[in-house]
Amino acid sequence: MEKRDYYETLNVSQDAGDEDIKRAYRKQAMMYHPDRNQGDKEAEERFKDAAEAYEVLRDSQKRQIYDQYGHEGLQGTGFSGFRGFEDIFSSFGDVFEDFFGFGTRRGKRERARKGNDLRYDMNITLEEAFSGKEEEVSFKKWESCGTCDGSGITPGSEPQVCGTCQGSGNVVRSQGFFQIKTSCPTCHGQGRIITAPCKECRGNGRIKVEKKLTLKIPPGVDNGSQLRLRGEGESGERGGPPGDLFVVIHVQEHAFFSREGDHLLCEVPISFHQAALGDTIKIPVIGQDEGQELKIPQGTQPDIILSLPSMGMPSISRNQRGELFVKIIVKIPKKLKKRQRELLEEFAKTEESTRKKSRIFGSG
Ligand SMILES: [Zn+2]
Ligand SMILES: [Zn+2]
Fold first, then answer.
1. Which residue in 177, 186, 271, 274 has the most C-beta neighbors within 10 A?
2. Minimal CA–CA distance to 10: which of 28, 37, 32, 33?
3. Ligand 1 center from residue 153 Cα (angstroms)
4. Separation of 155 CA from ligand 1 center, angstroms?
5. What CATH number does the domain located at 258-331 have?
6. Is the pLDDT higher at 96 or at 130?
7. Domain 114-146+203-252 architecture
8. What digits encode the pLDDT tens for the residues 192-216?
9. Do the strands 118-124 and 133-144 form a parallel or antiparallel pair, or are they unpaired?
10. DSSP 8-state symbol, 300
């Protein structure tokens, strides 16, 4: 019988990467897994074909030979495919373990597992982001049970060896020509059975506790900043390390300032006479109660942006502050008092005569 192309078997393209190939193999292996296709000869064949294809394509050397010389090229390397399921499971145990929850030796539940990471969302004001903040927070998390030391067994009692698998964690079933090794259903691959579960944690090994922690928010954090507190997540299982706590910062919008990185932006309204004649005004500055004097130069144009160095936000990584950019908004009065109107009309006359003059000069 003509051997199928390996790429075709796994349903991947010739330039597929290692991860694509692994994923494609998992898909095939899951579809044609003997546990799901009891007694189906075609599924059995497909399962073996997929394993053979994966064995070659995951190995860069074998893959290269196959790409150049095809199936025949591989015969010279001593590669001969698999003898049976046992062979396949022992070669790709990790692939199956990830997907089916069991592998070749022991069930995965026995392995140490890192605790879950936790996320804590914190809302702060722009002022708090500027100066930094310390806050005690409380949250619930799983911790290793102190009574049983995380074992789930009442102290002093001993777990019994599982009678179904004699402590190996696996059972071997025969299916026609093949032997299939799977995780023991009685002990879930543990090899032992807990007869006296810990009362505190009900055999879980972990209990939910309320945890208090003082969070230190450094000056300069931005919206979306994440602080990672190593080891403050949930306890690991079976001796695994604890997870981390991620504090996600949400900085509320400010009524006056908007932020761009370490820089702050604001808009300051002045009247048209201040723009024309110049003035000194007081503007709010973050982290400074009394504000800051700002000189408006004579002849300031509308929407001009003045910059004040080191009046922005502190940088979280460098020892410096951003700039404060002040956009000048020139306000035109909507209503004029009688006297103001007279003065402005006077002013307009002086403008008119200069305009006429410039027109004469311009056309001459
Ligand atoms: Zn316990
Ligand atoms: Zn067992």
1. 274
2. 28
3. 6
4. 9
5. 2.60.260.20
6. 130
7. Sandwich (2.60)
8. 888 888 999 888 888 899 989 999 9
9. unpaired
10. P
